[in-house]
Design goal:
The complex is a heterodimer of chains A (388) and B (508).
Chain A (H helix, E strand, L loop, with lengths): L1 H14 L10 E11 L5 E9 L10 E9 L2 H11 L3 E3 L5 E5 H6 L2 H9 L8 E5 L18 H15 L8 H9 L6 E10 L2 E13 L2 E6 L1 H11 L5 E6 L7 E18 L2 E17 L8 H30 L6 H8 L1 H7 L4 H4 L1 E12 L14 H4 L5
Parallel strand pairs in A: 1-4, 1-5, 5-6, 6-7, 12-13
Antiparallel strand pairs in A: 1-2, 2-3, 7-8, 8-9, 10-11, 11-12
Helix pairs in contact in A: 7-8, 9-10
Chain B lengths: L3 H8 L13 H11 L6 E8 L5 E8 L5 H13 L14 H8 L5 E4 L2 H9 L3 E5 L5 E4 L29 H11 L5 E8 L5 E8 L5 H13 L8 H8 L11 E3 L2 H9 L3 E5 L5 E4 L17 H30 L7 H11 L6 H21 L5 H18 L5 H16 L4 H36 L1 E2 L2 E2 L9 H4 L31
Antiparallel strand pairs in B: 1-2, 2-4, 3-5, 4-5, 6-7, 7-9, 8-10, 9-10, 11-12
Helix pairs in contact in B: 6-9, 10-14, 10-15, 12-13, 12-14, 12-15
The chains are: A alpha/beta (388), B alpha+beta (508).
Chain lengths: 388, 508
C-alpha cells in the first residue's frame, strides 16, 4: 500500500504541469486576417478579445495587433513576442484573407491552419474585396463587439434567412481544393461606406480556380449559384407582376430542393437542373385580385420562368467568362457515371456542357390574407378568420 | 493491575477468579459487597420471614436499572406475606420451591456462575439468594428509562412508517418483530466489548438468509477484541472486507421498516444495545443511492428520483475536476462564449484556479459541517453568512471568480443529494481536482479510472460491491437504476439471499 502511494505521488510530482496555464493569462484570439505585407510576404493581424481590467463585467473590447513575416506563422509568433500574454488561437472563428493574397493562392495559409494544434479546422474562411482583411476587424459592427464573432454570426444568419453566400469551413475548403470536379467558393465580404461609418457587409461569393482566386460574384449571381448548389434554405424573390407596371410581388422561399442530373447524347453532355421550391407570398403591390386559380397559376409560372432564365444565363456566363466549375457539375458526373468522368476530367469539360433548367414552384401560402387590403370587398375579420 | 502484563491479561475481562459463592448468605453478601465496592447504586435487601416456612434471603440489584415496583410487588411481597401452600422447613430455603411457588415474576433463571450473576445484576436483573443455597435465582426486573420512539431526524420520509429505533435493544427488536410476525425471524445474541459487555443481536430470516454470510459475520463479530462498542459503526469498521476504503460497505439505518425490507431481501441486521443505528450486511453500492421513499411512492416518481441521485453523484464527484481541467488545460473544449465569460470573470482573481477551487470546496464543507453541528436556530444566520458573505462579497472583492462559486454551489447541492456517500465523495472530488490540475483531462480520466477500479474491487462480506450495476436481466436490474413496480419484483438479489423467489405469481 505504501509503495503504491509512493509511486503515485512520484508519478504525479514528476510529470509536471506542462500545458497548465491560467485562462486569464492568455489572450483569446477571435479571428485572424492575412494581408499582403509591405516589406515581407504576409501581414498577419489578429483580433484579440480584450477583457476590461479588474474583472468588472464591462463589454468586451476588440483589439487588433499586426505583424509582418515571411510566412504566416512567423508573423503570428512575431505578434506573440510583442504582447505580454500568450496568444490563444483555439477560440478563433474566422480566417479573413484579402483579395491579393487569395489571388496568389490559399495553400500556404491552409497549411498553417491545419498543422497548428490550436487553430480549429472549423474556422470560417472568408475573402475580403476592396478592403484589407485586417480592416474588417476595425469596421463598425452592429451586434457583437468582437468583429470576428459578428462575421461568424452574419454567416450563420445569412444561411438561415437569405441564402446569399455559402458558409465554408476550413475542412470543407480542403476537400474542395483537393477534388477536381468542383471549384472552391468562399464568402466575400467588403465594407459599406455610409457617411462617417463603415460597416461590414456581405459582398457575395469569391470563386476560386484551384487554390487561387478567380473572380467575385455579386449578391444576385451568388443567390443563383446557391440555388443551383441546393444550398438555399430561405430566400426572397421579387418579380414584377406584369412587364409594364410597377406592381411587384415578393415571395419567400420556404424550402428548396435542387437535383442535378446529366445525360450523354451524341457526345454532348447535358446537365439537367431540377429546382423544386415551396414559396409563400410575402408582399403584393397590386390592386387586382389575382388570387384566383388562374391568377395563382400565372404567378407561379412567372417565378418558374424567372428562375429558369436566371439560372441558365448565369451558368452560361460562368462557362464563357470564368470556366470555374463552381456548381460541382464534374462531381455530379463522377458520382453518376464514373467512366464518363474519367474520360472528360482532364479536358475543359465545364464550358462545353449544355444546361437545361426546370423549376417547379409550389405556392404554399399567401400569408394571413388573400386579397390586397385596398380592395373593396376586403374584410380583415373574414380574411383572417378573426371575430365574426 | 500494577504491571503491564497483568493489565494485558485483565484487558480481556473482569477477573472473577478471586471470588467464589458460598452456602452462607452472609459470606455471599460480603463477596458481592466486595465486587461492587464503591458503587453507590448497588443495593442489597435482606429479608427474613418470621412465619413458616421461615426464609432467610437477600436481593441484589442496581438501583435505576431494576424496577423497584417489580421488586416490591413481585418478589418481596410474596416472600413476606402470603403463602398458599406451606412446604417443609427442611427445604425452606430451597430456591426451587421459591421459584415454583412463591415468585410472581415471568422470567427467572437459576445460576451458580458468579460472572453471569454479576452481569445480570448490572443489566438490571435482581438476584435472589437464600441461606444454604449455592445457586441463585436471577429474576428479570430490567426497567431502566429509555427514549421514546420518534421519527429519526436524519432519515425523514414523505410517506411510510414514521417510527425509529431507540437506544434500547429490546425495544428495537420489538419494532422489527412487530413487522415480521413469523417464527422464521431469528435473533441471535452475542456480546461485544470486554468492558462494556454490549449485547449485539443478529437478526435475519432463517429460510432466506445466506448462511455463508451469516457464518462469516458471526466469526468476525466473535473475533472482535475491543474494550467497548458504542455504535454499530465500531462493528462495521472491525468486520469489513476492505478496511482501507472511504466507501461504506455496511448499511446503517435508524428505521425499522428499512431494516425489515433488507431482512426480507436476505440481509442480516445487526442491532447493538445502546445505539439506534442498525447495521445491515451485505451492502451493495447502489444502496447508497436508494432511499426509503423509493418504495413508498409511485414507481415512476421514485425511479426519477433515483436517476437524479445517480446524476447528482456523477456531477458532485466530477464537476470541480472537470472545470479545473478545462479552464487550465483545455479551453478549446468549451464554447467560445463560455470561455470568454470564464476568462472575463477570472480577470484580477489572485489565486490560481486549482487553489481557488480547493479553497472554495473547503469553505463549502466548513459551512456544511458547521451547519450540521449547530443548534437549528442558528442555521438561518449561517445560511446568510454562506450566501451573502461567501457568495456575493467574495466575488465582488475579487477573491474568487463567479463561475467557481457556481461550480462549488452545484457540487454542494448535488452532494447533498447523495449524503450517504458523503465521505467518499469529498475525497474523490479532491483527488480529481488534484489530478486534473496536474495532468488536465488526462489526469481527470486516470482519476476516474482509479476510482472505478477501486469501487469494483470491493466486496461486502464476500458479495461483490458493485453487483448488478451492469445487469440486463429484468430480475437483476429491477431495483438498480430505476425501481420496477412491486409486482415485477419477483426475485431477491441472487448473491445476497439463498432463497431467491420472493413472489411466484406477482405479475399483474
Amino acid at each position: 500500500m505504501k509503495k503504491i502511494i509512493c509511486m503515485f505521488l512520484i508519478c504525479i510530482s514528476l510529470c509536471g504541469c506542462q500545458s497548465y496555464s491560467e485562462i486569464e493569462d492568455v489572450m483569446l484570439v477571435g479571428g485572424i486576417a492575412v494581408d499582403k505585407g509591405e516589406d515581407e510576404n504576409y501581414k498577419v493581424s489578429v483580433e484579440i478579445v480584450g477583457m476590461s481590467e479588474g474583472g468588472e463585467e464591462g463589454p468586451l473590447q476588440s483589439k487588433v495587433i499586426s505583424s509582418e513575416g515571411k510566412t504566416v506563422f512567423s508573423a503570428l509568433s512575431d505578434i506573440n513576442s510583442a504582447t505580454s500574454k500568450e496568444l490563444y488561437l483555439s477560440q478563433a472563428t474566422v480566417i479573413a484573407i484579402s483579395e491579393p493574397v487569395a489571388r496568389e493562392g490559399l495553400i500556404d495559409i491552409i497549411d498553417v491552419i491545419v498543422r497548428d494544434e490550436e487553430l480549429r479546422i472549423t474556422n470560417d474562411v472568408i475573402v475580403t474585396k476592396d478592403c484589407a482583411a485586417a480592416e474588417l476587424f476595425t469596421l463598425e459592427s452592429a451586434g457583437e463587439p468582437i468583429r470576428s464573432y459578428e462575421i461568424q454570426g452574419l454567416l450563420e444568419n445569412e444561411k438561415e434567412t437569405v441564402s446569399v453566400t455559402p458558409r465554408v469551413r476550413v475542412y470543407e475548403l480542403i476537400d474542395i481544393i483537393g477534388s477536381s470536379g468542383v471549384s472552391a467558393i468562399l464568402p466575400a465580404f467588403s465594407k459599406e461606406q455610409s457617411e462617417e461609418k463603415a460597416n461590414i457587409s456581405v459582398f457575395g461569393t469569391a470563386v476560386f480556380r484551384g487554390d487561387k482566386l478567380d473572380r467575385f460574384l455579386d449578391e444576385k449571381e451568388s443567390k443563383i449559384m446557391m440555388l443551383i448548389l441546393g444550398q438555399t434554405r430561405r430566400g426572397v424573390i421579387s418579380e414584377p407582376i406584369k412587364t409594364d407596371t410597377e406592381e411587384y410581388m415578393t415571395v419567400e422561399i420556404f424550402d428548396c430542393r435542387t437535383k442535378v442530373t446529366h445525360k450523354q447524347q451524341n457526345g454532348e453532355i447535358t446537365m439537367y437542373i431540377d429546382i423544386n421550391m415551396d414559396v409563400g407570398i410575402n408582399e403584393l403591390t397590386t390592386k387586382e385580385d389575382i388570387m384566383t386559380m388562374e391568377g395563382r397559376q400565372t404567378l407561379v409560372e412567372k417565378i418558374e420562368k424567372r428562375v429558369e432564365r436566371d439560372t441558365e444565363e448565369f451558368v452560361r456566363k460562368m462557362q464563357t467568362e470564368s470556366g470555374s466549375d463552381v456548381f460541382g457539375f464534374g462531381e455530379r458526373i463522377y458520382k453518376q457515371n464514373p467512366k464518363l468522368w474519367r474520360k472528360i476530367k482532364d479536358t475543359d469539360y465545364f464550358s462545353s456542357l449544355k444546361v437545361k433548367t426546370k423549376a417547379k414552384v409550389t405556392l404554399r401560402s399567401t400569408g394571413f390574407i388573400n386579397k390586397s387590403p385596398s380592395r373593396k370587398d376586403f374584410r380583415l375579420s373574414q380574411e383572417k378568420g378573426g371575430e365574426k | 493491575m500494577t504491571n503491564k502484563n497483568s493489565s494485558l491479561k485483565n484487558a480481556k475481562e473482569y477477573d472473577f477468579s478471586s471470588f467464589a459463592l458460598s452456602q452462607h448468605l452472609s459470606e455471599n453478601i460480603k463477596t458481592f459487597k466486595k465486587i461492587f465496592e464503591n458503587d453507590a447504586m448497588f443495593k442489597i435487601r435482606t429479608c427474613s420471614r418470621g412465619i413458616p416456612p421461615e426464609l432467610e434471603c437477600a436481593l441484589f440489584f442496581v438501583d435505576g436499572m431494576a424496577g423497584s415496583e417489580l421488586i416490591n410487588g413481585s418478589i418481596i411481597k410474596p416472600i413476606a406475606q402470603v403463602i398458599t401452600e406451606p412446604w417443609d422447613t427442611e427445604t425452606a430455603n430451597n430456591i426451587d420451591e421459591i421459584y415454583s411457588k412463591l415468585l410472581y415474576a415471568g422470567e427467572v433463571k437459576k445460576s451458580s456462575d458468579l460472572k453471569e450473576i454479576v452481569e445480570s445484576i448490572i443489566y438490571g436483573d435482581t438476584a435472589l439468594m437464600t441461606e444454604g443455597e449455592k445457586e441463585v435465582l436471577i429474576i428479570n426486573s430490567k426497567s431502566w428509562e429509555t427514549r421514546s420512539i420518534n421519527e429519526p431526524e436524519n432519515e425523514k420520509t414523505l410517506r411510510g412508517p414514521k417510527d425509529g429505533f431507540t437506544d434500547a435493544l429490546l425495544k428495537n427488536s420489538s419494532l422489527i418483530r412487530r413487522r415480521l410476525k413469523t417464527p422464521d425471524l431469528k435473533f441471535k445474541s452475542l456480546t461485544v466489548g470486554t468492558r462494556t459487555n454490549t449485547t449485539v443481536c443478529l437478526c435475519y430470516l432463517e429460510s432466506v438468509v445466506n448462511k455463508k454470510v451469516l457464518k462469516e459475520l458471526e466469526v468476525r463479530l466473535k473475533k472482535i477484541d475491543i474494550d467497548g462498542a458504542l455504535d454499530t459503526n465500531y462493528l462495521d469498521e472491525l468486520t469489513r472486507d476492505n478496511p482501507y476504503t472511504p466507501l461504506k460497505t455496511a448499511g446503517v439505518t435508524e428505521r425499522p421498516d428499512v431494516v425489515v425490507g433488507r431482512i426480507l431481501e436476505g440481509r442480516i441486521a445487526v442491532l447493538l444495545d445502546g445505539s439506534p443505528s442498525v447495521m445491515t450486511v451485505p451492502y451493495l453500492f447502489i444502496e447508497n443511492l436508494q432511499t426509503d421513499d423509493d418504495y413508498y411512492i409511485n414507481y415512476f416518481f421514485s425511479s426519477m428520483g433515483r436517476l437524479l441521485r445517480i446524476i447528482s453523484l456523477l456531477i458532485t464527484v466530477a464537476v470541480p475536476g472537470l472545470y479545473v481541467a478545462i479552464a487550465a488545460f483545455h479551453r478549446e473544449m468549451i464554447p467560445t462564449n463560455l470561455a470568454l465569460s470564464i476568462a472575463q470573470a477570472r480577470q484580477g482573481v489572485p489565486l490560481p484556479i486549482t487553489i481557488e477551487c480547493l479553497v472554495m470546496l473547503l469553505v463549502f464543507e466548513l459551512l456544511r459541517e458547521s451547519g450540521m453541528r449547530m443548534p437549528s436556530n442558528v442555521g438561518t444566520a449561517l445560511s446568510i453568512v454562506g450566501a451573502i458573505v461567501i457568495g456575493q462579497a467574495a466575488v465582488d472583492a475579487k477573491f474568487v471568480s463567479a463561475p467557481m462559486v457556481i461550480v462549488v454551489a452545484v457540487t454542494g447541492i448535488t452532494g447533498l443529494m447523495v449524503s450517504k456517500l458523503k465521505g467518499a465523495v469529498i475525497l474523490y472530488r479532491t483527488l480529481l481536482v488534484l489530478m486534473a490540475s496536474v495532468l488536465g483531462m488526462y489526469g481527470f480520466i486516470v482519476g476516474i479510472i482509479l476510482i472505478v477500479a477501486h469501487t469494483v474491487s470491493l466486496t461486502s462480506f464476500g458479495v461483490s460491491y458493485t453487483a448488478y450495476l451492469d445487469s440486463y436481466r429484468v430480475q437483476e436490474a429491477k431495483d438498480i437504476y430505476i425501481r420496477f413496480p412491486w409486482w415485477k419484483m419477483k426475485e431477491r438479489p441472487g448473491n445476497i439471499s439463498e432463497n431467491i423467489i420472493r413472489q411466484r405469481g406477482g405479475e399483474k
